[in-house]
Amino acid sequence: MKIGFVVNDIATEKPEYTTTRLAMTSARLGHDTCLIGLRDFGYEPDDSLSAIAAAGDTGKAYRSLERYLEDVQTATRERVELNDFDVLVLRADPAVDAAESAWANTAGLAFGHLAANAGVLVVNDPGSLANAMSKAYFQHFPEVVRPRTMISRDEERVRQFIEELGGRAVLKPLQGSGGSGVFLVNMKEEPNISQIVEAIARDGYVVAQEYLPAAKDGDVRMIVMNGRPLEIDGVYAAFRRRPGATDVRSNMSAGGKAEAVVVTDEMLHLVEAVRPKLLSDGMFLVGLDIVGDKLMEVNVFSPGGLGSSGELYDVDFTTLVIEDLERKTGIREHYGSQLPNTQRATI
């Protein structure tokens, strides 16, 4: 299997990233594996697609994430034909380039769409990822799984909504990820709502969301593959992300700490509720953030957590992910281009 992992920039990848873990596992399993940056694509006059890619040593049995990534980042980059790939895994985070190069992710999704049209399996589906560029995508999931939410740039309306919620709410930008720009506000403590709303609205819309008391204990990140919880022999790729003592954010990039968690029937019910939407959108690998009986976010771009899950439970979830992509490539041999990318991505 020839597989490429699309990242924001090869030079800025880190060993602990889930993408690095997946790529190293793919290489260890004998697949022709490379990394491609968002700025490294090309469209040729003959309608073919190309990219400048970097790969580790072919056939090397890597055991160290640091050594694998070092070899990739120092390797001589070569131009490759995307049409020859079996799979492209889109793992770029839109928030990384939002400030200075917002065009990069749009371009990456466009090339992903072209590759899918050429018959390459592209996960997650680039067309659906384009629709998920803002947190408004979350509002397409069943109302029963979502906390009460309002999206606006009107400060007075934001104030009114917070009062409707009892004076406490979470405010965050419509665009972004990783816990950036997230505020917990309490009207009883007379926070400076004006400055917070102004700061968020400077770059777009403000999402005001019901605060869930259970959030004080953090949230649960659950990895979902093909619309079902990722699990091996009853062990789930899920863990609690507990925030710092003074921080509402539980994201690992914002200082959250990972703890083992018991997956409840309530959590599994939430997965079942969102499963039809994930399947129809071709969302192969997704991270669900769960607080109590609600979903806080559906992370579809570069969901992390396979490393934390694997270390907490001493289970290798990455092999299962790569083996499932192997299975999907076999489907193409039987059906050719009969099945759309959205269906092949989660079948």
Short synopsis of the structure:
The protein is an alpha+beta fold and about 350 residues long.
What does it look like?
- The structure is a single chain.
- The chain is an alpha+beta fold and about 350 residues long.
- Helix content is about 35%, strand content about 25%.
- The strands form 4 sheets. Strands 4-3-2-1-5-6 form a 6-stranded mixed β-sheet. Strands 11, 12, 15, 16, 17 and 18 form a 6-stranded antiparallel β-sheet that branches.
- Helix 1 crosses helix 10.
- About 0% of the residues have low confidence.
**What's the number of structural domains?**
3
> Which segments are poorly predicted (pLDDT under 50) over 5 or more consecutive residues?
246-250
Record the strand order, biggest sheet: 4-3-2-1-5-6
Residues in β-strands, percent: 25-35%
Shape designation? globular
The string of secondary-structure elements, in order, is: EHEEHEEHHEHEHEEHEEEEEEEHEEHHH
CATH fold name of the largest domain:
Rossmann fold
Oligomer: single chain
CATH class of the largest domain: Alpha Beta
Corresponding CATH architecture of the largest domain: 3-Layer(aba) Sandwich
Largest sheet: 6 strands, mixed
Helix content: 25-40%
What structural class do you assign from the helix and strand content? alpha+beta
Instruction: Give the total of beta strands.
Output: 18
Question: Taking all residues together, what is the mean pLDDT?
Answer: 91
Instruction: Supply the number of helical segments.
Output: 11
Q: Radius of gyration over alpha carbons?
A: 20 Å
